[in-house]
Write a structure and sequence with these properties.
single chain; 216 residues; alpha+beta; Spore Coat Polysaccharide Biosynthesis Protein SpsA, Chain A; 5-stranded mixed sheet; two-stranded antiparallel ribbon; binds cytidine-5'-triphosphate; binds ligand LQXTBERG
């Protein structure tokens, strides 16, 4: 998913096309996705304004025949739907990934596919939460302190049996992640150990963190 604008990053171009050590975030993400032997087809969902740039990334990737580009939609869910619409008949497991999580390693893609193959229809990576999280009302008054041991900070790639994800999207609902759509239609979503490198570049600080990771 590279169809967002990256408003919180505040760069002069959409976030996925911002440079990170000589390569855009999107190119880092595509390179790592293609590095997983289980990944046979990549669909880049890009802003209408950047279809050409996305096409160039597809062309210079390690497997250009397996990478295509489609225009995204207004919200992330619309962009995912645009990607689902061009899946190939043989695409049985779908990984939905954010270009913003550009350093998620190939091994994480492979591990998620393996989890789906062992019989879990929807598998997402998550990290233990290290802060105490409080639920507040509209006035900022605490209404609950959930048990931290039961909380996970969810990442991408998120892996699904294709029919499970298509069924969830057919509901027409919107959510910030695809697992929530599956949950909303009564599907079982399993959380497995995430990867610190799969953090999301949202703000300029996150971009600086990504640069530090790459430099050593
Ligand atoms: N209409 C959209 C919105 C988001 N995304 C993608 O979804 C991922 C996660 O979204 P986020 O980090 O929130 O990206 P943006 O929406 O671009 O950021 P912002 O909310 O700061 O504008 C990103 O890789 C983004 O490109 C997308 O494909 N289509
Ligand atoms: C899909 C996601 O990256 C999982 O953590 C996240 O929900 C995207 O949310 P955002 O609001 O678009 O940043």
């Amino acid at each position: 998913m590279a169809g967002g604008q990256g408003t919180r990053l505040g760069a002069s171009q959409p976030k996925a096309f911002v440079d990170l050590d000589g390569m855009s975030l999107l190119e880092h993400a595509v390179t790592r996705a293609l590095g997983a032997p289980e990944v046979s087809h990549v669909v880049i969902v890009a802003p209408v304004s950047h279809l050409r740039e996305a096409g160039a990334i597809a062309s210079r990737s390690s497997r250009p025949a397996d990478v295509e580009v489609v225009p995204g939609g207004a919200e992330r869910t619309d962009s995912v739907a645009a990607g689902l619409a061009v899946l190939r008949p043989e695409d049985g497991i779908v990984l939905v990934h954010d270009a913003a999580r550009c350093l998620a390693p190939s091994a994480l893609f492979s591990r998620l596919v393996r989890e789906v193959r062992t019989g879990h229809p929807a598998v997402v990576p998550g990290l233990l939460v290290t802060d105490t999280i409080k639920q507040v009302d509209a006035d900022g008054v605490v209404v609950a302190t959930p048990d931290r041991a039961r909380l996970r900070a969810i990442q991408t790639p998120q892996a699904f049996l294709r029919e499970v994800l298509e069924h969830a999207h057919a509901s027409g609902a919107h959510a910030t992640d695809d697992a929530a759509l599956v949950e909303a239609v009564g599907g079982h979503v399993r959380v497995v150990e995430g990867d610190r490198l799969a953090f999301k570049v949202t703000t300029p600080d996150d971009l600086a963190t990504a640069r530090r990771h790459l430099s050593g």
